Amino acid sequence: MTPPETPRKFNPFLLLPLAVTLGLGVMAYVSLQRDDPNGLPSEFIGRAAPSINLTDLRDDPAPEDADLRTGAVQLVNFWASWCGPCRAEAPLLEQMASEMDISIIGINYKDQPEQAKSFLAQYGDPFVSIGADFTGRNAIEWGVTGVPETFVIDGNGTILLRYSGPITSSVLQKRILPLLGRAE
User: Fold this and answer.
1) Which of 1, 26, 123, 148 is the most buried (most CB within 10 A)?
2) Are 60 and 130 in contact (CB under 8 A)?
Protein backbone atom coordinates (compact mmCIF):
# COMPACT_ATOMS: atom_id res chain seq x y z
CA MET A 1 0.00 0.00 0.00
CA THR A 2 1.40 3.44 -0.93
CA PRO A 3 1.20 6.30 1.53
CA PRO A 4 -1.29 9.01 0.60
CA GLU A 5 0.21 12.07 -1.06
CA THR A 6 0.25 15.19 1.10
CA PRO A 7 -0.94 18.28 -0.72
CA ARG A 8 1.83 20.79 -1.39
CA LYS A 9 1.51 24.12 0.36
CA PHE A 10 2.02 27.31 -1.59
CA ASN A 11 5.30 29.02 -0.72
CA PRO A 12 4.81 32.82 -0.70
CA PHE A 13 8.57 33.36 -1.13
CA LEU A 14 8.17 32.25 -4.73
CA LEU A 15 6.48 35.60 -5.44
CA LEU A 16 9.41 37.61 -4.05
CA PRO A 17 11.36 37.91 -7.35
CA LEU A 18 8.19 39.06 -9.12
CA ALA A 19 7.45 41.64 -6.40
CA VAL A 20 11.02 43.00 -6.54
CA THR A 21 10.93 43.26 -10.33
CA LEU A 22 7.58 45.07 -10.26
CA GLY A 23 8.82 47.44 -7.54
CA LEU A 24 11.92 48.37 -9.56
CA GLY A 25 9.78 48.90 -12.64
CA VAL A 26 7.45 51.26 -10.79
CA MET A 27 10.42 53.23 -9.38
CA ALA A 28 11.96 53.56 -12.87
CA TYR A 29 8.64 54.72 -14.33
CA VAL A 30 8.11 57.34 -11.60
CA SER A 31 11.67 58.68 -11.94
CA LEU A 32 11.20 59.14 -15.68
CA GLN A 33 8.08 61.26 -15.14
CA ARG A 34 9.99 64.20 -13.60
CA ASP A 35 10.04 67.48 -15.54
CA ASP A 36 13.81 67.23 -15.99
CA PRO A 37 15.03 63.64 -15.58
CA ASN A 38 18.66 64.83 -15.84
CA GLY A 39 18.26 67.51 -13.15
CA LEU A 40 19.19 66.65 -9.62
CA PRO A 41 16.56 67.53 -7.04
CA SER A 42 17.71 69.69 -4.18
CA GLU A 43 16.11 70.16 -0.81
CA PHE A 44 17.61 73.67 -0.77
CA ILE A 45 15.50 75.09 -3.61
CA GLY A 46 13.31 77.82 -2.14
CA ARG A 47 15.28 77.91 1.12
CA ALA A 48 17.90 80.28 2.43
CA ALA A 49 21.36 79.45 1.13
CA PRO A 50 23.80 78.06 3.69
CA SER A 51 26.53 80.43 4.79
CA ILE A 52 29.83 80.29 2.98
CA ASN A 53 32.95 80.17 5.11
CA LEU A 54 35.85 81.01 2.81
CA THR A 55 39.59 80.50 3.17
CA ASP A 56 41.76 83.08 1.40
CA LEU A 57 42.72 82.09 -2.15
CA ARG A 58 43.74 85.45 -3.57
CA ASP A 59 46.42 87.70 -2.18
CA ASP A 60 43.78 89.96 -0.67
CA PRO A 61 42.02 88.68 2.44
CA ALA A 62 38.79 86.85 1.72
CA PRO A 63 35.79 87.68 3.87
CA GLU A 64 35.03 85.19 6.59
CA ASP A 65 31.51 84.76 5.23
CA ALA A 66 30.29 85.74 1.77
CA ASP A 67 27.14 87.88 1.90
CA LEU A 68 24.39 86.24 -0.14
CA ARG A 69 21.69 88.76 0.82
CA THR A 70 22.90 91.65 -1.34
CA GLY A 71 19.59 92.50 -2.99
CA ALA A 72 20.95 91.32 -6.34
CA VAL A 73 20.83 87.92 -8.00
CA GLN A 74 24.15 86.10 -7.98
CA LEU A 75 25.66 82.71 -8.68
CA VAL A 76 27.71 80.45 -6.43
CA ASN A 77 30.02 78.21 -8.44
CA PHE A 78 31.94 75.25 -6.97
CA TRP A 79 34.98 74.43 -9.14
CA ALA A 80 38.46 72.89 -9.09
CA SER A 81 41.59 73.12 -11.22
CA TRP A 82 41.67 69.33 -11.64
CA CYS A 83 38.11 69.32 -13.03
CA GLY A 84 37.89 68.95 -16.84
CA PRO A 85 34.29 70.24 -17.10
CA CYS A 86 35.32 73.29 -15.02
CA ARG A 87 37.81 74.15 -17.75
CA ALA A 88 35.05 73.80 -20.34
CA GLU A 89 32.69 76.21 -18.55
CA ALA A 90 35.38 78.78 -17.62
CA PRO A 91 35.06 80.92 -20.82
CA LEU A 92 31.28 81.13 -20.41
CA LEU A 93 31.60 82.14 -16.74
CA GLU A 94 34.08 84.83 -17.81
CA GLN A 95 31.60 86.06 -20.44
CA MET A 96 28.73 86.06 -17.94
CA ALA A 97 30.74 88.17 -15.49
CA SER A 98 32.14 90.67 -17.98
CA GLU A 99 29.43 91.08 -20.63
CA MET A 100 26.27 90.25 -18.66
CA ASP A 101 27.44 91.75 -15.36
CA ILE A 102 26.43 88.67 -13.37
CA SER A 103 28.06 88.40 -9.92
CA ILE A 104 29.64 85.01 -9.38
CA ILE A 105 31.08 83.76 -6.09
CA GLY A 106 33.67 81.06 -6.66
CA ILE A 107 34.38 78.24 -4.24
CA ASN A 108 37.49 76.26 -5.08
CA TYR A 109 36.84 72.67 -3.98
CA LYS A 110 39.58 70.52 -2.40
CA ASP A 111 42.37 71.95 -4.49
CA GLN A 112 45.98 73.04 -4.07
CA PRO A 113 46.20 76.87 -3.83
CA GLU A 114 49.02 77.08 -6.40
CA GLN A 115 47.06 75.00 -8.91
CA ALA A 116 43.88 77.01 -8.33
CA LYS A 117 45.75 80.30 -8.90
CA SER A 118 47.33 78.87 -12.05
CA PHE A 119 43.87 77.84 -13.30
CA LEU A 120 42.56 81.38 -12.74
CA ALA A 121 45.56 82.89 -14.52
CA GLN A 122 45.06 80.57 -17.51
CA TYR A 123 41.26 80.49 -17.82
CA GLY A 124 40.26 83.84 -16.28
CA ASP A 125 38.86 84.94 -12.95
CA PRO A 126 35.15 85.80 -13.25
CA PHE A 127 34.55 85.78 -9.50
CA VAL A 128 33.59 88.84 -7.43
CA SER A 129 34.52 86.85 -4.35
CA ILE A 130 36.52 83.66 -4.20
CA GLY A 131 37.72 81.31 -1.54
CA ALA A 132 38.95 77.81 -1.04
CA ASP A 133 37.05 74.93 0.51
CA PHE A 134 40.07 72.79 1.40
CA THR A 135 38.12 70.40 3.65
CA GLY A 136 34.96 70.18 1.54
CA ARG A 137 32.81 71.41 4.45
CA ASN A 138 31.06 74.12 2.38
CA ALA A 139 30.32 71.60 -0.35
CA ILE A 140 28.73 69.23 2.16
CA GLU A 141 26.55 71.99 3.61
CA TRP A 142 25.39 72.96 0.11
CA GLY A 143 24.73 69.34 -0.92
CA VAL A 144 27.29 69.44 -3.73
CA THR A 145 27.72 66.08 -5.46
CA GLY A 146 30.65 67.06 -7.69
CA VAL A 147 32.25 69.93 -9.51
CA PRO A 148 31.34 72.04 -11.30
CA GLU A 149 28.09 72.81 -9.57
CA THR A 150 26.35 76.18 -9.72
CA PHE A 151 23.58 77.72 -7.64
CA VAL A 152 21.44 80.73 -8.56
CA ILE A 153 20.71 82.85 -5.48
CA ASP A 154 18.12 85.63 -5.39
CA GLY A 155 18.70 88.97 -3.66
CA ASN A 156 17.29 87.66 -0.38
CA GLY A 157 19.75 84.76 -0.27
CA THR A 158 17.23 82.12 -1.39
CA ILE A 159 18.36 79.33 -3.70
CA LEU A 160 16.44 79.37 -6.98
CA LEU A 161 18.37 76.74 -8.93
CA ARG A 162 20.99 74.07 -8.44
CA TYR A 163 22.75 73.03 -11.62
CA SER A 164 25.19 70.12 -11.56
CA GLY A 165 27.66 70.04 -14.43
CA PRO A 166 29.29 72.61 -16.66
CA ILE A 167 27.24 75.60 -17.68
CA THR A 168 26.77 75.64 -21.45
CA SER A 169 25.17 78.28 -23.69
CA SER A 170 22.01 76.18 -23.76
CA VAL A 171 21.85 75.90 -19.96
CA LEU A 172 22.49 79.63 -19.65
CA GLN A 173 19.69 80.51 -22.09
CA LYS A 174 17.11 77.97 -20.93
CA ARG A 175 17.70 77.67 -17.18
CA ILE A 176 19.72 80.56 -15.74
CA LEU A 177 18.77 83.72 -17.66
CA PRO A 178 14.99 83.19 -17.19
CA LEU A 179 15.58 82.93 -13.43
CA LEU A 180 17.75 86.04 -13.39
CA GLY A 181 15.07 88.08 -15.15
CA ARG A 182 12.29 86.77 -12.93
CA ALA A 183 14.22 87.21 -9.67
CA GLU A 184 15.07 90.86 -10.30
Assistant:
1) 148
2) no
| CA contacts within 13 A on the Cβ side of 29 | 6
CA distance 122 to 28: 43
pLDDT confidence of residue 62: 47
pLDDT tens digits, 130-155:
889 999 999 999 999 999 999 999 99
Mean residue pLDDT across the chain: 86
Exposed (0-12), middle (13-18) or buried (19+): which is 121, by Cβ within 10 Å? exposed
Integer CA distances (angstroms), 104 to 13, 27, 32, 49, 107, in order: 56, 37, 32, 14, 10
CB-CB contact of 152 with 177 (8 Å): no
Using omega within 30 degrees of 0 as the cis cutoff, is the peptide bond preceding 148 cis? yes
Percent of the chain past pLDDT 70, that is, above it, reads 85
**Nearest-CA neighbor of 150 among 131, 132, 135, 171?**
171
Rounded-to-integer distance, Cα 83 and Cα 77, Å: 13
Q: Which residues are catalytic?
A: 83, 86
151 near 161, Cβ under 8 Å? yes
Q: How many helices (H) and strands (E) does the chain have?
A: 6, 6
